[in-house]
Specification:
Immunoglobulin-like, 30 strands, 24 helices, globular, 899 residues, alpha+beta, eight-stranded mixed β-sheet, six-stranded mixed β-sheet
């Protein structure tokens, strides 16, 4: 499961879970002691489900036979069923007749009971149900209807507790059960489920009945069905050294968009084979479908039938957007990794949901990066990770493995980017410490041992410890069971007693954070240059600190070999000076990025001065790797927005142009023939920065010219040849700001018929464009009925555009209810984050009052509200501490150079 392209995968870590709200666990309900989890004593062992689905109708019908096993005599059987009109309920003992029973939903969130006429068991029996229900009105909730291009589709989304909206059952991940699924649909439609079709028959009423092969054991949240007028492109993957059988793979898209599946099918095949090789375990299911739904907001790892938002998976083959290609490959790799981590081996409860997501993120990035190293996906991850590491310094940070006691807890956990990005980074940190081969061997053992079952974090850590030949669990648990991130402080000592490096650790806290102290055992791998060459040494740093003995005094050292450690670090001033002066030509891009990111982190925590930090970043402004150079861009943006007063902000724009204008290649808006990915990044990052932050007049004029040509107003359709696809949204936004309401009004009607990347660019440009002539119209775009629910508000919020976030926050006192109703339930919890850009302690009281009212109505928003409020405090503390130093530094750098 992963969020979509609009947020650069997981910039805010908002992922898509749609649990109910407000039901606490441990709430007694007529003898059931826990309204969140069912009592023990009943185990489902097989489902036979028959559904009648017609997208043209308002609802659906179904029947089910569920074989269960009772461990003790019972007359009441607790299970799930939510908003189902159950008109038949019966039970059947082996060899006995079917007898009537009574089904009753007893909580609003779907706990139900079946009352038998007499006590039965222990042993096996079968429950029979027949029901009808309405399709869900909400995207990504149960069986919902997806509307695309005038067509209607039925799609299933059962995470985290929404299978109960589609059929009675045992809707918890600990119950893994084989399913037999049969679906009846209008004969002209395609229907899809987790397994391959084994029988299809046409009925006299113009429908057809499709029977699918029996699944391997699955949790209910990974069951999938869909029906609609899909386009289908089929492929067969040949056997390989791991999988001894051919595998049927299909791309499935809304009608008319099948041609846009080519990239997904071409890219998915080698990514899948790479996953099989890495795990040495063949793809576990009988076939694999990649299913695109028009208004679905993310991606979901249903076993054998992965669901994607259409704009994540479908790409125009004639005008490919390179960043969209990267995102599609990464998301596919992530979701396919889930076929092993999540589907084949499932966390028994949401407390360990981080296991599924962290491993899928770790392997997804690893495999996609190995497939196309030039794309730089690993560096992209490290850039996104820096935002998570910053938030992990807050008092509001939460552990990625934590108790789950309510549906709000489930939504908060699955919507927490920490379980993706932090979890992946912790895995990478421990992989480097214990060694790649031992790490892989441990994971292979873990998957093989628990295939078709459930497994916990303890099971995984035991497997890693066995493979490593040492205790991995103790240190690892500190990273996943505690909030926060450590900072490693290191200094070298070379004297008559020898050469060594002293390491100590404590919790990292930016100024303004009230985070409590924590202690870790931190696996640190450091790179050294000795007279004889480069070397790497790893050490476990306990709370009391440690010394690493060295064979000789190093010329320099970096306490983050590979640049992937999940910790902040600082060096003693002499060691930092040596690193800056001698090491940069020897460090990898990820390691240089680590130098830049940790320089900023040290400044934010008061561990380094503002001027020395900015001098370090300026020295990297010309780095050949765009991600490294961009750290300085981000620092200048933050200074302009938060540290400098209005009269001084032109200083930041002047410095931005002086540092980054010389590196601009051509006008930047057109990709040269044969441009590789590193060159593309070096082209587009300065263009965006110069247009948005430096407000370079020449760049903005060219952007407006190309944006107007892209809009192609007289023709009423977009001209993709006018600007490189990766800058189309920016160019269109600036064109709208320049031309004002006339262009805005000309483009609005295109929301009715535009699809794909052109639609994404259009929505972003309309939502982000802001100028006096538009008088705030972009800020109320979310009200436009032509926008899909998944397009309202979140593109602006997730792009961290300060103006848009502030604009959204200012609307919240009067419009919050409408805003919350306008977006899918899975996205609504991000709304409080709009407040984080205030950066003014004087506004804290008002923000606390507003967000307090919001949280009272939507309790699941509490974590994001707390993070937003603390973000204001941290930003205000940095402003108080560094604004004078920032003004002084920018005045010095902006001063004209005397020849």
């Amino acid at each position: 499961m992963i969020f979509g392209r609009c947020c650069a995968l997981v910039v805010l870590g908002v992922v898509l879970a749609c649990a109910g709200r407000g039901l606490a666990g441990r709430a007694p309900v007529d003898g059931i002691t826990d309204a969140l989890q069912l009592p023990d004593g009943v185990r489902p062992i097989h489902y036979a489900i028959d559904l009648e689905l017609d997208p043209a109708r308002e609802g659906f019908r179904g029947t089910a036979a569920i074989d269960i096993e009772l461990s003790a005599p019972a007359r009441v059987i607790w299970l799930h069923g939510r908003d189902l009109h159950v008109h038949e309920c019966a039970f059947e003992l082996p060899g006995g007749p079917r007898a009537a029973a009574v089904f009753e939903q007893v909580t609003p969130f779907g706990v139900a009971r079946v009352t038998l006429p007499r006590t039965v068991g222990p042993g096996r029996m079968t429950l029979h149900f027949a029901w009808d229900a309405a399709f869900s009105d909400a995207v990504q909730t149960g069986l919902f209807r997806s509307r695309t291009g005038g067509e209607v589709y039925v799609i299933a989304e059962f995470l985290s507790a929404d299978a109960r909206r589609a059929f009675p059952g045992f809707d918890e991940p600990r119950f893994k059960t084989p399913f037999d699924v049969r679906v009846t649909v209008p004969a002209a439609l395609l229907t899809v489920s987790n397994e391959r079709t084994v029988e299809e028959s046409v009925l006299q009423n113009g429908s057809k009945r499709v029977r699918f092969a029996t699944t391997r054991p699955l949790p209910t949240y990974l069951l999938f069905v869909a029906a609609g007028p899909f386009d289908v492109i089929a492929r067969t993957l040949p056997p390989n050294e791991v999988r001894g059988r051919p595998l049927a793979v299909r791309g499935i898209a809304p009608r008319g968009r099948g041609r846009e599946l080519s990239f997904a099918l071409e890219t998915g095949a080698p990514l899948l084979a790479a996953l099989e090789r890495w795990l040495a375990i063949p793809f576990p299911y009988g076939k694999l479908d990649h299913v695109a739904a028009g208004d679905y907001p993310g991606a979901k790892e249903n076993a054998g039938a992965i669901l994607y938002g259409a704009d994540l998976l479908l790409l125009d083959p004639e005008h490919p957007d390179e960043e969209s290609r990267h995102s599609a490959a990464m998301v596919m790799a992530h979701e396919m990794a889930h076929q092993w981590f999540g589907a084949l081996v499932t966390a028994p409860w949401f407390t360990d949901a981080w296991l599924n997501e962290s491993f899928a993120q770790f392997l997804g990035y690893r495999i996609a990066d190995e497939y196309r190293p030039a794309w730089g996906l690993a560096l992209n991850h490290l850039t996104d990770l820096d935002k998570i590491m910053t938030a992990d310094g807050f008092a509001s940070a939460r552990a990625i493995r934590r108790p789950v006691k309510s549906f709000d807890d489930i939504q908060g956990l699955l919507g927490d980017g920490f379980i993706y990005e932090k979890g992946m980074a912790v895995l990478a940190t421990f992989e480097r410490w214990i060694g790649a081969e031992a790490f892989r061997a441990g994971l292979r053992e873990y998957v093989r041992t628990h295939a078709d079952g459930t497994a916990s974090a303890d099971d995984m850590l035991a497997a890693l410890s066995r493979a490593a030949g040492r205790d991995v669990a103790t240190s690892f648990r500190g990273f996943v069971e505690k909030p926060g991130i450590p900072v490693i402080m290191a200094r070298a000592a070379c004297d008559a007693h020898g050469a060594r490096v002293y390491f100590s650790e404590r919790r990292y806290r930016p100024r303004g954070s009230k985070a409590l102290d924590e202690e870790w055992q931190v696996p640190v791998c450091a790179r050294f240059e000795f007279d004889g060459g480069m070397a790497e040494r790893c050490v476990l740093v306990p709370p009391e600190g440690t010394a690493l003995e060295l064979p000789e005094c190093p010329r320099w050292f970096l306490p983050d070999a590979g640049g992937i450690g999940y910790y902040r670090w600082t060096l003693a001033p002499p060691d930092q000076a040596e690193l800056n002066a001698r090491a940069m030509t020897h460090l990898s891009p990820a390691e240089r990025l680590s130098v830049a990111r940790n320089a900023r982190a040290a400044q934010r925590a008061g561990l380094a001065g503002y001027a020395e930090t900015m001098d370090t970043l300026v020295a990297l402004a010309g780095d050949p790797v765009a991600a490294v150079a961009a750290v300085g861009m981000e620092a200048i943006r933050d200074a302009r927005d938060h540290l400098l007063d209005g009269a001084d902000r032109p200083l930041a724009e002047t410095v931005a142009r002086r540092l980054y204008r010389p590196g601009l290649r051509g006008d930047g808006f057109e990709a040269p023939n044969g441009e590789d990915e590193p060159a593309r990044r070096r082209r587009i990052e300065p263009v965006r920065f110069l247009a948005e932050v430096a407000r370079d007049p020449e760049v903005r004029r060219e952007a407006a010219r190309r944006g107007l040509a892209f809009a192609d107003v007289p023709d009423g359709r977009f001209n993709p040849d006018a600007v490189a696809a990766d800058l189309a949204a920016l160019a269109l936004r600036i064109a709208i700001e320049k031309r004002g309401p006339a262009l805005y009004d000309a483009l609005l009607p295109r929301l009715e018929h535009t699809e794909g990347q052109e639609r994404a660019s259009l929505v972003y440009a309309l939502a982000a464009a802001d100028s006096p002539s538009l008088a705030g119209r972009a800020g109320t775009l979310w009200r436009d009925p032509r926008l899909r629910p998944t397009e309202r508000l979140f593109p602006a919020l997730l792009d961290y555009d300060r103006g848009i976030m502030l604009r959204t926050y200012r609307q919240m006192p009067r419009d919050f209810e409408s805003m919350a109703a306008a977006v899918p339930a899975s996205l609504v919890d991000i709304l409080p984050l709009a407040a984080r850009e205030l950066c003014d302690a004087r506004e804290l009281t008002g923000a606390r009052q507003l967000l307090g009212r919001v949280v009272a109505k939507y309790p699941s928003m509490q974590p994001t509200a707390a993070r937003a409020l603390e973000g204001i405090e941290v930003c205000a503390a940095e402003r108080h501490a560094d604004s004078a130093a920032a003004k002084s530094w920018f005045e010095r750098i902006a001063r004209p150079t005397v020849e």
